[in-house]
Design a protein that fits this description.
Elements lengths: L6 H9 L3 H11 L2 H16 L5 H23 L12 H18 L5 H15 L4 H25 L6 H51 L9 H18 L3 E8 L2 H8 L1 H15 L8 E6 L2 E7 L3 H16 L13 E7 L6 H17 L5 E3 L16
Parallel strand pairs: 4-5
Antiparallel strand pairs: 1-3, 1-4, 2-3
Length: 384
C-alpha cells in the first residue's frame, strides 16, 4: 500500500530516503519484539517481588540505550561502510551481555533469560556468517559460565554449586546446540546465496550469448531484426522516418589472406569499437553476418542518415591498427529509408542493392537506395 502524503515525510525521517538504509533500519526495528519480551519479563519479576525495581530499571535502561545506539548508527548511514551494515554481531553480543546481567539477578527464574538469548542467536543467524554465529553462541555460554562462577563464589547459599552448574549445563548445552543449528542454517543460506549468484551470472551469460555477437560485442542479427520490425510498426503509427544502413567492409577477404584471420578479427572489433561510441542511444548497430553490419537509424530521413554515415565512414578510414600498421579498413554502405507498408526484408534488400552499387562505383562510399529506383540498368554483383 502506498503511504499517504502525511506518512511519507514521517517514514523518510524514521527509515531514511535511501533504499539500503531503509532496509537495514527495518531489520533493526524487527528486534524490538525481543526487547519487548525481555522488558516484559523484567517487569513481571519486579511485580512478583523477585527482582529489585532499581536493578530492573538499570537493565531496562541498558536495553533501551543499546537499541537506540544501534538504530542511530544504522539510520545515519554510518554503518554502510562496514561489512555488517546492520551491526548484527555487536548488537546481538551486547544484548546477550545484558541478558547475562539479568541472569545474575533473577534467581530461580534465570533460566527464562536463556530463552531470550537463544532467540537473539536465532535472529542474528540470518545476518551473520556461519563462523560468527558459532562465535556468538560460544561467547554467550562463556559469559554465562563466568556469571555462574561469580554467583556461586559470592552467594553459595542462594546459588549452590550443584544447582547452579546444573542450570548452566542444561542451558549452556542448549545454547551451544542452538548455535550449531544456526550455523548450519547460515551455511545453507551462504551456499544458496552463492548458487543464486552463480545462476544469475550464468543466465546473464546465456542472455548475452543469445543477444550479442561475441567477437565484436554488438547486437546479433536476431535481436536487431526484432528491434527493426518493432520500429517499423512504430513508424507506421507515428509517421516518423526510419532508415537502415547495410555496411560491408571492403576487401575483407584480402585482409584475411594478407594479414591472417587474427587481423580480420582485429578489423571487425576495431570497426565496432570506433563506430559504437558515435551513435545515438536510439541507434542500433548489429553484426549482420561475416563482415556485414546493419545499422538501424530511427527518426532520421535518408539525407540525415547519409550525413551520419559519411562521418562514420571517415572515422573508420582513419583507423590505425597498432599491430598491423599496413592494414587499412574502409567500408561500403547502402542506405534505405523505410516506406509505408514495406517489410523489413524488402527494406534490407534495397539497402543491399545500394551496397552493391557502392562497390561497383569503387567502394569506400555511401549510396542511397532511393537513387537506384529510377535506374533501369540491372545491377551486377560486385566482388567482396
Amino acid at each position: 500500500m502506498k503511504p499517504s502524503s502525511w506518512q511519507t515525510p514521517l517514514l523518510d525521517w524514521a527509515l531514511g530516503r535511501q533504499q539500503p538504509t531503509r532496509r537495514h533500519v527495518l531489520l533493526v526495528l524487527a528486534t524490538l519484539q525481543l526487547y519487548a519480551v525481555t522488558i516484559g519479563i523484567l517487569m513481571h519479576t519486579v511485580h512478583l517481588g523477585l527482582l529489585d525495581r532499581h536493578m530492573a530499571n538499570v537493565l531496562i535502561l541498558c536495553a533501551v540505550t543499546t537499541f537506540l545506539t544501534v538504530f542511530a548508527l544504522v539510520r545515519s548511514g554510518w554503518s554502510l561502510k562496514l561489512t555488517d551494515p546492520v551491526l548484527a554481531f555487536p548488537h546481538a553480543l551486547v544484548c546477550n551481555c545484558i541478558g547475562v546481567l539479568a541472569f545474575m539477578q533473577l534467581g530461580d527464574h534465570r533460566s527464562n533469560v536463556m530463552i531470550i538469548m537463544g532467540q537473539t542467536i536465532v535472529a542474528a543467524m540470518f545476518r551473520l556468517r556461519p563462523a560468527r554465529v558459532l562465535l556468538l553462541g560460544a561467547l554467550t555460554v562463556g559469559m554465562l559460565a563466568v556469571a555462574t562462577i561469580t554467583l556461586t563464589w559470592h552467594d553459595p547459599v542462594h546459588y549452590p554449586v550443584t544447582k547452579s552448574w546444573a542450570v548452566l549445563a542444561v542451558g549452556g548445552s542448549a545454547l551451544l546446540m542452538l548455535s550449531l543449528v544456526a550455523k548450519w542454517i547460515s551455511d545453507i543460506g551462504v551456499k544458496l546465496g552463492r548458487q543464486t549468484k552463480e545462476l544469475t551470472e550464468a543466465v546473464r551469460t546465456v542472455q548475452q550469448m543469445a543477444t550479442t555477437d561475441m567477437l565484436t560485442g554488438l547486437l546479433n542479427r536476431r535481436v536487431v531484426t526484432d528491434l527493426a520490425e518493432a520500429e517499423l510498426k512504430l513508424m507506421e503509427r507515428t509517421g516518423a522516418p526510419m532508415c537502415v544502413a547495410l555496411i560491408d567492409l571492403d576487401h575483407f577477404k584480402d585482409i584475411n589472406d594478407r594479414f591472417g584471420h587474427h587481423a580480420g578479427d582485429t578489423a571487425l572489433r576495431g570497426f565496432a569499437q570506433s563506430i559504437a561510441p558515435q551513435l545515438r542511444q536510439v541507434d542500433k548497430l548489429a553484426r549482420w553476418g561475416g563482415e556485414e553490419f546493419l545499422l538501424m537509424l530511427p527518426q532520421l530521413n535518408q539525407n540525415e542518415a547519409l550525413t551520419a554515415l559519411e562521418r562514420l565512414r571517415q572515422t573508420v578510414e582513419a583507423l590505425v591498427f597498432k599491430d598491423h600498421a599496413l592494414m587499412q579498413l574502409t567500408f561500403s554502405v547502402g542506405i534505405a529509408q523505410a516506406q509505408p507498408g514495406e517489410s523489413l526484408e524488402q527494406l534490407v534488400d534495397r539497402a543491399d542493392q545500394a551496397v552493391y552499387e557502392a562497390k561497383r562505383q569503387g567502394r569506400n562510399r555511401c549510396v542511397l537506395a532511393s537513387s537506384l529506383v529510377a535506374s533501369a540498368e540491372p545491377l551486377t554483383e560486385a566482388p567482396a
